[in-house]
């Protein structure tokens, strides 16, 4: 049986865990009690043995679905032969108490509340838990008026009460006005018994209160609001860290091997996360995220690891789950990620870029935090001439990636300006300026390929790379510089792909020409497709940027969710929903909204010296 297309899944989050619901109403992915825990439902990765929390209305087709208000409460409307049923599915949250900086507080329960709105309807539910990524059989028993699964710690309650028939089940006939509830908690029987109505009200209130802090009403306002809610759902309330995506091993090509676990925190997201959160009126979340990085990074002999776990760990083993067939037969299914051990020198600039924008807006970095940041600049001084794995984490040989040199320049430039903003005289500014100028000279001499007429992927080689769309966004060169405009054109010519129905997609690179060590193709990168929009704005090609943005945004479907990649026919690929895609969408909207006064958005990135 083929799985639903990725774009048909709904996303739920309580900012500590996340779930994906298929179009038929089944929860096919949920990791509890935190984002990176083993999956207790994983049908999305195996239609044969994967677990799911099923809910259906007898005789009804797939429901019409939408999110209510500015929340992650999913409303599904089934119309059956004798009546209409409305379900509200959500991971319960509440607003914080005074002094609680979390913004949104997870409650710890997955709720499914079903109301018969008209006529009569029969509903059926089944909880097929598959603990530890379906490696361990579940063991259910009745405990304290609920049903408890001892391997995963799940506890199920409901009204009417579910019964054990090998697995927890509910079969109920509803008439107009009747309500049925199922509450699946982790470890707390009291939550499994809590009435769903107050939980629903508190969840809606918390999301609406958070969203109301942003008054953005410019270009793409509705898409920006939905993307902001998705990003908040990927911000871990306990640590403040941003998850790249809530899923593992959703393929970058059907049947291919490019399947990775994204339930971790990448430094390379830092600057865009901080900029977007600040611009949309969420300085607390921006500060918590940046301080998570400052508190937990590990600089070992000048080596800044490219990623972290949610609790600040710097290593997690990568393993293959050979018993799972993978989404659409895409193997291997991987959990963990060995990119923790890579050398990615671009991360130095990503972190300093985030720190500068935060200081310029919020202005409350401490001397100790500044000292840690200055140590990163010193490391970039010492290491920028080295080869690395690059921003795309290519697992073959180390190379002199142009984007890594670009971010080395960013690190030095932002470090110099951060010291000035803080009035801090500790750093060796003369040395930093010399090295910054040396990086710039190196980039202009070796990153720009005269034969191609563009900045290219690796020093001295002709392949294109869409990471270089950020050259003007980082203010390395003005967007109207002929070399920048030519680079945009060459990237579009060689890495662009028409999108059915209008618009264009951008691939990050050509996998065959790059030699990334993996077999098969991949989809176009939505991050890069939105980055092209932003770059075109800074290049003065605003009309073209608007057309591209207008063509891309509807591809998120009625739920407004984007994966990492997309094919030319609009099929989503890769882990879903993807934070970086939603960040780039928001940045593109902000750039378009500031068109003609674009410097207002990127003023913090200008080289003041």
TrEMBL record:
Superkingdom of the organism of origin: Bacteria
GO biological process: trehalose catabolic process
Keyword Hydrolase carried by entry: yes
InterPro entries from the UniProt entry: 6-hairpin_glycosidase_sf, 6hp_glycosidase-like_sf, GH15-like, Trehalase-like_N
Hydrolase as UniProt keyword: yes
Entries under Gene3D superfamilies matching the protein: 1.50.10.10
Pfam family, one: TREH_N
Domain GH15-like stretches: 237-589
PANTHER family: TREHALASE
Record-given protein name: Glycoside hydrolase family 15 protein
Organism: Actinomadura rayongensis
Biological classification of the source: Bacteria, Bacillati, Actinomycetota, Actinomycetes, Streptosporangiales
